[in-house]
Structures are given as C-alpha cells and as structure tokens.
Design brief:
Strand order of the largest sheet: 1-10-9-6-7
Radius of gyration: 19 Å
Structural class: alpha+beta
Number of strands: 10
Low-confidence stretches: 259-281
Order of helices and strands: EEEHHEEEEHHEEHHHEH
Distance between the termini: 42 Å
C-alpha cells in the first residue's frame, strides 16, 4: 500500500500566455495533500487546446485522488503505475470522443506530465513533450524523454541536437491525449531525497530557455520556489515568449515530523563560490 509522501513540500505553480499568443492553452493543477501535480499543454486551434488541457488536469486530479483514497480506506494494494496509466488512457478516450462529437472541439488534444510523490518515491507519467526535471545537488536532469518527431530522429542518430532544434516539424508530438487512436503513457519511478527540486514545464519554457539556464535559475532561486517559478517564466518571455509557458516547481524541504532546515544566504554564496572554483569534469 502506497503512503502519502514522507516529505514536506514547498511548491509553486505559474503560467503565462507568452508574448505572441492571446490565449493560454496550458493548464496546471495540484493536490499537494497527496503529493500530486499535473501539467498539460493543449494542442489544436481556437479554444480547443485549452479545453483539452483543462479537462485532463481536472479529471486526473480528481480520479487519481479518488483511486488513492479508496484504496487507502480499504487497506487495499495500490499500484501507481497501473492507476496512472489506466486513468490517462481513459482520459484519452474522453477527449477523443468530445473532439469527434463537436466541430468546435475538432482536433483538440493535449500533452501531459504528472508527478506523484508517494512514500519515498516519485512516480512520473507523461505523453508528449511536456517535461519533468529533477535538480539535485547542483545537477539538472530531465526525467522524461520527449514523445516527438525530432526526438525520434535524434534517438536514431539521424540528426544532431542542434539540427533537431531547426527542424520544421520539431514540435510535432508522437503521443498526446486525444490525438487519435490509442495512447501509451510512459510511467517511471525514482527515489527521492531531501533537497530535491522537481520542475514540470510545457515546451514554451524549453523552446526558449536551455537546460543550463534552467539549472542556473533554480540554483539562484531555491529555497524560494515561487521565485524560481517566476524567474523561469520571465526568462522564457525575455527570450521571445513564442508560446504559452507553464511551470510547477516542487522542493522537498524536509521529512515530515522534522523541522526543515533552510540554507542561509552566506551558505548559498559559499556554495556558489565553491562550484565556480571547482574544475569541470
């Protein structure tokens, strides 16, 4: 039986339409009481993408929480991998059906990334190119792999990373909820540590800000997660803001029952100086 996260969480959610688009088709939401965070990036035209993203966030928060609470009340086994996958597949059908039955919703779909902190582990489910990063001990690592045409070419060795960024079809996703047909969510789990910072984001961030800049923004902002989230949005918009941009930043501040210890300003400056003085490699 999975248990609620063993960590106290600091978290922040932030979203912005960007500099060029009048409508924000991203959607974000959270159930921090059970360690659940969801981010979607709507696809399609007009208001359809926004609807698909909002439907997915609302439904996943509700159904996953209900599944967890029902299993907890019954003392029954709980498999996060199975539950997350089943609920995302179910949502794929709901969005596809809505799109098929209304001309206003035709073609709507959404990417999705879900982070669920249970016990000492992080469960990550995603479809599309919305990402989840982990910042641990000064190192930023993407825990998701894009489901996109450019990523497939990159994995096959047909293009370099720089060439992939210039492809006309670089934003074509190969998995999404409601994109037609069946969807196979990717679900993985990872151990958690005190001090980990998790960052979920839409491609409106990663298209404008590279991983080195993202790492620098998080390093410069923690333990203030709200500052980190706002800094990332500001950086994307300053770089051009060509798309909607959304982020969720979650920091594992300490273990439940233990008072979290925050680094002092002097300790942060010392850490920065130490890293700057250390030889690379």
């Amino acid at each position: 039986m999975a248990t609620p996260t063993n960590f106290t969480l600091d978290y922040a959610l932030a979203s912005h339409p960007g500099q060029l688009r009048p409508l924000n088709e991203d959607a974000i939401g959270a159930r921090p009481d059970i360690g659940l965070f969801v981010l979607c990036d709507g696809l399609g035209g007009y208001n359809a993408g926004e609807i698909a993203a909002t439907m997915a966030v609302s439904s996943l928060l509700s159904t996953l929480a209900a599944d967890y609470e029902q299993a907890s009340a019954a003392g029954a086994p709980f498999d996060p991998r199975q539950v997350m996958s089943e609920r995302m597949i179910e949502m794929n059908g709901v969005i596809s059906s809505a799109a098929a039955n209304s001309a206003a919703f035709e073609g709507m779909a959404t990417t999705i990334v879900v982070a669920w902190l249970l016990g000492d582990r992080l469960w990550v489910a995603h479809a599309g190119d919305s990402r989840l990063y982990r910042f641990r001990e000064g190192v930023l690592e993407a825990l998701t792999r894009d489901h996109s045409f450019s990523q497939e070419l990159l994995d096959a060795g047909m293009v370099t990373e720089e060439e992939a960024k210039l492809l006309p079809s670089k934003n074509l996703v190969t998995r999404a909820l409601g994109a037609g047909g069946e969807v196979e969510p990717e679900v993985n789990d990872y151990p958690l540590r005190i001090g980990d910072v998790l960052m979920l984001c839409s491609d409106g961030l990663t298209e404008m800000v590279d991983d080195v800049q993202i790492a620098g923004a998080i390093f410069a902002s923690v333990p203030d997660v709200q500052r980190a989230a706002q800094r990332l949005l500001d950086m994307a918009n300053a770089a051009g803001g060509r798309d909607n941009v959304s982020v969720i930043v979650v920091r594992l501040a300490g273990r439940k029952g233990l008072e979290p210890r925050r680094a002092s300003a002097a300790e942060v400056r010392s850490s920065v100086a130490s890293k700057a003085a250390s030889p690379s490699g």
